[in-house]
Amino acid sequence: MRVCLIGCGDIANAAHGPALARLEKEGQVELSGCCNRRYEKAAAFMGKYGFKSAWSDYVQMLDSLQPDAVMVLLPVHTIAQVTIDVMKLGYPVIMEKPPGIDTDETDMLSKTAEELGIFNAVMFNRRSMPLVQRLKREISGRCLDAISLEMCRFNRTGGEDFTTTIIHDLDCVSFLTGESYSELCFSYDEHPEAGYTNYFVSGRLSGGTHVDMRFLPAAGGVTERFGVYAHGSQFYLDLPVWSGTEYTEGFDCPGRLVGIETQKKILDINGEECSGCRDGFVLNGFYDEDRILLSAIEKGEDSPYEIKSGRQSVEIMLAMRRRLAGLVWENNI
Q: Which CATH number is 24's domain given?
């Protein structure tokens, strides 16, 4: 399985680079080439993670190397067009989130993949976090009443578009439950002088589960915490966001999942116990994400995470960016 990578920035260095290096060490992939507009960054990435060649032009790289799969890890405003270019060149493609900056881009990506019959996938790493996967198994078949979540960041000010980070947990709620959203109401706490906005979301999923979400970009630390409430049980999940990476050890490292039933603790497991290690790229789901998707390409299987699977989350992200009051879906996705 020969892999090429486009984009040697933060997410590549903190997450996919070490994940792919481990996969190559295990004999699952061959790291053929990496590309960055600034060649020196690609060359440094090549040396750090064991790629065989470095490039500054991705079309030339793909033409020369003819890989089996291409990973596109670019900023949100450039990733869609490059992903479409890769598909038009005939290569199976795996792109980082979001699958489009808006629904027009998402639809264009999906339409291109469908017309060409190309394997395509979007990477929302929460889907592959070992603790998220464990919680998904624990709540399967339970009658869910409510889900709450709180995403906090530190010093994410300066007027940046925080919705492109929020989309992670919008997607995670839907992934955990296997349900789409049926209605959502939004409210906003604007702080223009400090350059940030707090976002508050409430509503229901297609199965009737109530959701309550808070997104706070200028809090005291980097955390993402979920509460899942079912008939007769409840679960609390602290995600190990960025734990064990070169960025930060993570406030909730290595993450924790607790389950309660009939007034007793039925589960208490941390991310290291769940994943078998403390490596950040494993705790945060990037290793399993890359392994699962590249294996599907190699085996000729359908993509488990097609680009279109993230469309509703993109629609919600766009509504929040535009400061809409709410959304209602008459026909659930």
A: 3.40.50.720
- What CATH number is associated with residue 203? 3.30.360.10
How far is the C-alpha of 67 from the C-alpha of 294, rounded, in Å?
12
| Span 223-232, pLDDT tens digits | 999 999 999 9
Q: What phi, psi does 54 have (nearest 5°)?
A: -125, 145
List the one residue out of 29, 33, 7 whose CA is nearest residue 19.
Answer: 29
Q: 152 and 74, same structural domain?
A: no
Indicate whether 89 and 154 sit together in one domain: no
- Going by pLDDT thresholds of 50, 70 and 90, the confidence category of residue 159 is confident
Examine the pLDDT at 244 and tell me if it is beyond 90: no
What pLDDT score does 200 carry? 98
14, 49 in Cβ contact below 8 A? no
Q: What are the phi and psi torsion angles at 145 (to 5°)?
A: -100, -45
Tally of structural domains, the chain = 2
Give the per-residue pLDDT at 332. Answer: 57
On whether the CB atoms of residues 51 and 4 are closer than 8 A, the answer is no
- Which strands, in side-by-side order, build the sheet including 233-238? 264-270, 256-261, 233-238, 223-230, 144-152, 210-216, 196-205, 181-191, 326-328
Find the domain containing 96 and state its range. 2-125+286-306
SS3 214: strand
| Predicted model pTM | 0.95
CA gap 105, 142 in Å, rounded: 36
| Minimum mean pLDDT range among 50-64, 236-250, 299-313 | 236-250
pLDDT reported for residue 156:
92
Residue 83: pLDDT band by 50, 70, 90 thresholds? very high
For residue 21, give the DSSP letter.
H
Q: Are residues 180 and 238 in the same domain?
A: yes
